Every structure is written in structure tokens, then in C-alpha cells.
Amino acid sequence: AQTVTQSQPEMSVQEAETVTLSCTYDTSESDYYLFWYKQPPSRQMILVIRQEAYKQQNATENRFSVNFQKAAKSFSLKISDSQLGDAAMYFCAYRRDSNYQLIWGAGTKLIIKP
Amino acid sequence: NAGVTQTPKFRVLKTGQSMTLLCAQDMNHEYMYWYRQDPGMGLRLIHYSVGEGTTAKGEVPDGYNVSRLKKQNFLLGLESAAPSQTSVYFCASSPPGTGGVNTEAFFGQGTRLTVV
Fold first, then answer.
1. How far is CA B96 from each of CA A88, A99, B49, B82, B109, rounded to the nearest angstrom?
2. What are phi and psi of A21, to 5 degrees?
3. Cβ of residue A54 closer than 8 Å to a chain B Cβ
4. Residues in B touching A102 (Cβ below 8 Å)
């Protein structure tokens, strides 16, 4: 069965600096999708970035980028120029290509220091 | 664009009471899901549906029932609430997962349920 591990329960970063959140996963599949979701205090789950496993190029979305290491089964999220609005819980999630179910990590709480 | 809407947003139940959570999506998605979120844990799948009239069990289905009579609606029922069901419940929807880049799930705003 697939599992997703986020080993950092909490991270803090100074405003305007860069922070990297870690995620590792375990799977025997070759085709799958990986996601990072943000959950601010409002509770809303917001998609931050996604990566298709068959793509070697790392996904980027403005200040957010990933370091996808398929062989190592690692999918870290880098946030550049951190802003106060980035403070939230961040969840890493895995989905099989031919399936529907998201497998979630336990989350990392990101604190932004002004 | 409403997206995914959950009703209600908050609820307090007494042990043994029943209730139904409603999820509605206006994106014509085939797949719908109910998750629960507990402190220190990732979301866990309760039940899901791959189309109108279909439902299936997820990771933690005990104590819950679901129905998908219309494509746009997915209902989660608690027949006899227990304190262990105190949680935040999320509904989500997505298009089918095969062959497409638009495979992410869209979430409702969550329902905080407390069972006393």
C-alpha cells in the first residue's frame, strides 16, 4: 500500500526567505501524481502545485517549486520569498494514475516570522 | 463559480443522534469523496463515489453511510453519532483520474462536527 510521510511537523522561516518542506512516499507504481495542498486557518484546502511522475521536469508555480526525485521517492516543496500569507498547514498527497484516492501525509505547519 | 459546497459548516451533536452532511458540486465531476481530518493526521477517506448511483468504502467507513442519487450531490450520514466521530469533514470532487492533467481534487470548506 502507498504511504506518504512528512517528517517535519512544524517549520518556521523568516519573511522573504526560502523554506523547503519535505515529503517522501512509498509506492510500487510507475505512473502517479503528487500534490502539495495548503490549508490556511480558514480550513479551505488549496492546491499549491502538482507533479506528474512521468515528467522529469520539476513543476513550478510562481514562488513555489518542487524537487521531484522519482528514484528516491522524494517530493519536496520550496517556497521562495516567503510571505506572511504563506503561513498554513501544508499537505503532501499521492494519487495513482488510474485511481481516484488521494493518500495524504500528516502535514507540516509553516510559521512565517515577520 | 461555487465549486464544492458543504452544508452545514459547524454542528454539535449528542451521542446517539443522527445527521446528514450535504456536499454539492457544480463542476460536473464524476468522482466525489468524503474525508475526515483529525489532529496530527492526514485526511482519511471515508467513502467515495465514481458516478451517480455508485458508492464505495474508503479507509475508515465504519459508522458512516453515503448516497449519490444525483451526480452533483454526495451525502454523508451518521446514523448514531459517537464522540470518536468528532472531526472536520471534507467533501471533494474530481474528474476521472486516467489520462488527464486536470486530476486534482477540489475541496469544500469543511464541516466541523463535535459529538458530545
1. 29, 8, 11, 33, 22
2. -105, 135
3. no
4. 33, 43, 45, 105
**Three-state secondary-structure class, residue B85:** helix
Asked if A58 and A68 count as a contact pair (C-beta separation under 8 A), the reply is yes
Which amino acid appears at position A86 of this protein? Answer: D
Judge: B107–A97 Cβ closer than 8 Å, yes or no: no
Which residue shows C-alpha cell 468504502?
Answer: B57
Judge contact between A10 and A111, C-beta under 8 A.
yes
Contact B86, B115 (CB under 8 A): yes
Residues of A in contact with B110 (CB under 8 A): 43-45
Element (H, E) at A4: strand A3-5
Chain A contact probe: residue of B94, B103, B111 with most A CBs at under 10 A: B103
> What does each of the 116 residues of chain B score in pLDDT, given as a tens digit?
679 999 999 999 999 999 999 999 999 998 899 999 998 888 999 999 989 999 999 989 999 999 999 999 999 999 999 999 999 999 999 886 554 445 678 899 999 999 99
